[in-house]
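User: structure tokens for Translation initiation factor IF-2 protein, please.
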Amino acid sequence: MRLEIDTSAPVLVTGATGFLAGWVVKQLVDAGATVHATVRNPEDDSKCGHLKTLSNTSKGKIELFKADLLDDGSYAEAMKNCRVVIHTASPFITNYNDAQKDLIEPAVRGTKNVLNTACSTSSVERVVLTSSCAAICGDTIDCQDAPGGILTEDIWNTTSSASHQAYSFSKVSAEKAAWEIAEAQDKWRLVVINPGFIIGPSLSGKSTSATHDLIGGMGDGRMKSGVPAIQIGTVDVRDVADAHIRGAFLDHANGRHIIFKDIVSFLDLALMLSDKFDSSYSLPKKELPKWLVWLIGPLVDKTFSRRMISRNFGHQWRADNSKSITALGMSYTSLQSSMEEMFQQMIDQKQF
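Assistant: Done. Predicted tokens:
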């Protein structure tokens, strides 16, 4: 499937300092595109330094713009003359005080902010939204209610709320808001990318994402007694970036796209590290018993509510990623090589 990246107009990438967004930006500028990259503070080299370096060493160019999800209209300047908008900016955190304020409001209001600006920007022809498999399925047990027990792009998460699986609720709420805006106009097309659990190396140095916190727990001994018995479709961050770019520039790209390489458990991910790192690190070797997590989980991590544990631990997660291959032409990176690269980078950066 031939992919031609249009470099004649700038491409807007929101949340450009993020784990995923950095790779989207890199793939665009490596192809010679000009990227309008929005960040909270363009002067903060601790967050933006890698983007400035990338701009100086690539075929394309990165221009930084200040914008904020909760500042209405703040994306207007960055969006000028852009035909493609790639909206990746959204909180992915597990340590929060107020789900509505810290997760849901920034995700939903930020999406409305960016897409409403697209409606008033004459140059915009396509918007690519980073959603999630969490917008399709809130809890692993929900797969049982899907036709044939397999999740597809036709299914929506109906079980999450502000008090249960708040991150998943933020993703489904933001995506629904995006479709509502998209379907009320005919100027630009919305393409949605729904990745599973994203792993792989970071472009920005030390990352504070929830993904890195989980993998860090495998390396620093926090999980040496075992990992949660959870399955999820998992994918390399560079593949997810590629999916966004294919969604942006393939003429026929449309609708939602489930993105993952393989369905694995957290234990499977830990065991992928065994051959290379087992002698030096206390890597997990087993899954924690559900009864033990049931007893102590809520005391250790507020996201491990008893409802969350009962609806996710020990259940099978099943989904169909075939549309990503047939419609976007995706091919996927080995999860083992992705895990090894990510873990080695975290070692080199002394993250554990």
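User: Anything notable?

Assistant: The two ends are 41 Å apart (CA to CA).
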